[in-house]
Known about the structure:
alpha/beta, 13 helices, 2 domains, 7-stranded mixed beta sheet, 37% helix
Amino acid sequence: MFKETNTQSKMPKISSRAVEMPSSPIRKLVPFAEEAKKKGRTVYHLNIGQPDIETPKCVLDKMHHLNLKVVEYSHSAGFQSYREGLAKYYKKLNIDLDPNNEIMVTTGGSEALIFAFQVCFEPGDEIIIPEPFYANYNGFATTSGLNVVPVTAKIEDGFALPPIEEFEKKITSKTKGILICNPGNPTGYLYSQEELNTLRDIVKKHDLFLFADEVYREFCYDGATHISALTLEGIEDNVVLVDSVSKRYSMCGARIGALISRNKELMASALKFGQARLSPPTFGQIAGEEALNTPQSYFDDVIEEYVERRNIMVDGLNKIDGVLCPKPSGAFYAIARLPIDNADKFCQWLLEDFEYNNETVMLAPATGFYASNLGQNEVRIAYVLNKTALHSALTCLEEALKVYPGRV
Amino acid sequence: MFKETNTQSKMPKISSRAVEMPSSPIRKLVPFAEEAKKKGRTVYHLNIGQPDIETPKCVLDKMHHLNLKVVEYSHSAGFQSYREGLAKYYKKLNIDLDPNNEIMVTTGGSEALIFAFQVCFEPGDEIIIPEPFYANYNGFATTSGLNVVPVTAKIEDGFALPPIEEFEKKITSKTKGILICNPGNPTGYLYSQEELNTLRDIVKKHDLFLFADEVYREFCYDGATHISALTLEGIEDNVVLVDSVSKRYSMCGARIGALISRNKELMASALKFGQARLSPPTFGQIAGEEALNTPQSYFDDVIEEYVERRNIMVDGLNKIDGVLCPKPSGAFYAIARLPIDNADKFCQWLLEDFEYNNETVMLAPATGFYASNLGQNEVRIAYVLNKTALHSALTCLEEALKVYPGRV
């Protein structure tokens, strides 16, 4: 469905922005997965960050007892009560925020980033992003006409922040911001205080915005602590936080996020974009507000589960001959280097031509997460399935690598 | 809250697009309304299209019996079952659509229009819109960097489509589209077959896109029939429809709309923007799909109610000395010309300085609905309150016009 045709396009023409807009690298293999399933094959979906974890019970209960007669718009910045609840949530993280002008509820983290880009960038401006990075950042950049400039984080370093010199080399008169995802999708890497201080210094020196996507904040493992960009001192007007309930409470479909900044001018401008689209979703906001009451035990259980899954997956991958997979400290993704010629070919071959006990595995080629031409022999793995499924998926992958014609 | 400061802005600077983004003309009087309420005054809200009509019972019941364990993403184009349901809905209107590549579910009509503009326009392109028009079209245009060129519909003509010569005069090499809202917000005007044929001819002649916002389709009065732009022959690749459940089922907060076109290239491109933002809201889609089962009796009752409200409001307005208000055939808005010096001043004065039996009325100054400098003595009235409230609001307005210092 929705195929772009190769026939000569009729007038009126679509825009060059629409032509340049990248397709989702995560979703482009979907037709091959559908074909495999039609053949009766089990496909283990490690390709997409849709967790199987249940949404907190308090949220589902709340939705069953809605007392609405009219499903009305909310304030364009979101329900006042929800913003106040979010301020209390951040207060627990030692972050003081004013719910009246520093927090704006958005339609997912996606909209928060779209608004931030619209407010902060002129068309033609540049944003530096450590790669590999979340592929949809490219799409949001295209929407606002800004250019993504990558700085490469290396798999050999476990995807640590590249040295400051690498950033300095990329800064031009067009550079207006740096974007990080912490902990990272697709790497799972968690930035240290020292790395964040490096970013603070470079941002301050060059008057840049620092966009921090912290939607995986709760998912930190092995005793590691998440440090929010909002705690960095001296760059209060530069930091723009993107948040979301999607992964935190396993409710991706609620489409509720938040745009947060202490830069009042930025927030006042973002609200104008928010007013144009009227309001974030009412049902999702009700769910998001209730989710603030999720007990700590929910997170303890989820984190325990993810640590076990990560260990199964990453340890299992590293035991396979020729595979390298740094062990991430956060989120629920890992990037693995495989002994293959081309990740796009390999991922398609897994779905089209391979099966082991009538099962196969769907992975995301890492090429879509690099802005430069890297990642040709890397894949992103989302460990969002139960442990039994992960073991089976690992077996599939191991067997596949034995017989893949493009093995190197 | 969210005030833009006048102090010298710190580096880094926000974008010129953010500076140019218009504030919502409908919402900018809100602080004055809040002040009036703090003084204990009743404020009749005729300023915003938030109906008091109840959401259909089937929808509210459905939400009480959700059987979800995980609130997952949907397909980026929306649930397949919902798209199939929408195709059946349009089929009843004698419009054949393929749910697989001609219908995309969006986050409200707003997102549909944002995607359409992104796909169809280069920055600097021009779109012609008959004014007065829905103010947020300006915001969506700013987001995509396109310029709005108004063609003025006249209150003396009841806001009928301006003559074709007026359109021809405005067409340049930059013109790529015409946007209509039918029935119209803020005019309530319903276009005839002849007027739509005029638009068809001009669109075809100049290879333009025709964007049709038909979110008020069901609200047609006095036996008038709505004619969809999708039924116009010979411009199948030019027509882009924007739809929404917000007003149809009185569920504005669901944030569910649709982008519809038979132009496959356009739809395939729009899907890429849809993939970047992942999916429309899951709860809202469930509500939207259930709303397709709303019985005809619901609409019969709602339309009867709106006709009565319209008659009270419009007939009442025209009885006031110096007031002119064309009687609309659709939607639930009317534009009225008042004997006043300045609508912005008058609307603020109503909230700040006027009361009648400790009550006042909130209206939307029409200036925000014109791209040219017109509408200075016009207001938009949304007849979304019950009949008792409308009578009281009319009395307030009549008394206010007797004592307003800027009466002309």
